[in-house]
Specification:
The complex is a heterodimer of chains A (132) and B (84). Chain A folds into two domains: 51 residues, no CATH class; 78 residues, Glutaredoxin (3-Layer(aba) Sandwich), CATH 3.40.30. Helix content of chain A is 30%, strand content 14%. Chain A contains four helices and five strands. Chain A has a two-stranded antiparallel sheet. In chain B, a hairpin with a 2-residue loop joins strand 1 and strand 2. Chain B is mostly beta strands. Chain B has a domain of 32 residues. Helix content of chain B is 0%, strand content 19%. Chain B has no helices and three strands. Chain B starts with 49 loop residues before the first strand and ends in a 9-residue tail after the last strand. The chains are: A alpha+beta (132), B mainly beta (84). The interface between A and B is large, with 57 and 46 residues.
């Protein structure tokens, strides 16, 4: 979503993005003229008249589980976005009985918070596991 | 003469030039009432919206709540053709 019109979205997709992604952008390119939606989400930069690089993860119940907002010159890390979705999906599947420690990704052990784990995380998790 | 400027990721903008208009005299000073901006909070409902969109060759209208039941990644960015 950006403040550009759908016509500019079409031009950008057809003339540039479709040369990077086969078949063009697979998801809807939303237009937010005047930054009305961006204002509600707190990412509209009034002075510049554009939206910051905001990224919101919304779960199947419509609840915001996480967000990240960057100023324009630095791009996002898509891999990290996907990792976060996988972690939230894992927690959701466990109905909240599991939690994912720092650096978790599918295949790595999760934590089962409870009285027995208090003060014992060091036994099941070490700082190396925060990194790949 | 028009000056060349460096193209960055933010959309270049202009604005009014010159001295600021003087406030009309005699009217009581009014502080413009500005709503306090609230940042989105995690764990809360994502504000619903509709927006026009370009999707696979068509112009369509998209509403966020249509995606209930699915995970959604909602991305904002400064503008089309802005490099990053």
């Amino acid at each position: 979503m950006s403040v550009d019109s759908v016509f500019v979205h079409k031009m950008w997709n057809d003339h540039e993005l479709s040369k990077m992604v086969k078949g063009g952008v697979p998801f809807p390119m939303l237009s937010d003229g005047g930054g009305k939606v961006g204002s509600v989400y707190g990412v509209y930069l009034e002075d510049a008249g554009v939206e910051a690089r905001g990224r919101f993860l919304i779960d199947p119940d419509g609840i915001i589980q996480g967000f990240e907002v960057l100023t324009p010159p630095v791009g996002r890390n898509v891999r990290e976005t996907i990792r976060q979705i996988q972690a939230f999906q894992h927690v959701r599947k466990s109905k909240g009985s599991e939690a994912t420690p720092s650096g978790w990704k599918p295949g790595k052990p999760s934590l089962k918070p409870g009285p027995g784990l208090v003060g014992k995380v060091w036994e099941v998790w070490n700082t190396k596991m925060a990194f790949d | 003469m028009a000056k060349e400027f460096k193209a960055g990721c933010a959309r270049p903008t202009g604005g009014p030039v010159g001295e600021k208009l003087e406030k009309p005299q005699g009217t009581p000073q009014q502080t413009p009432h500005k709503e306090v901006k609230k940042m989105i909070t995690v764990g809360q409902k994502a504000p619903d919206f509709t927006a026009p969109a370009y999707h696979k060759g068509k112009f369509v209208s998209v509403q966020l709540s249509e995606f209930l039941g699915k995970w959604v990644v909602l991305c904002f960015y400064p503008g089309d053709f802005t490099f990053v």
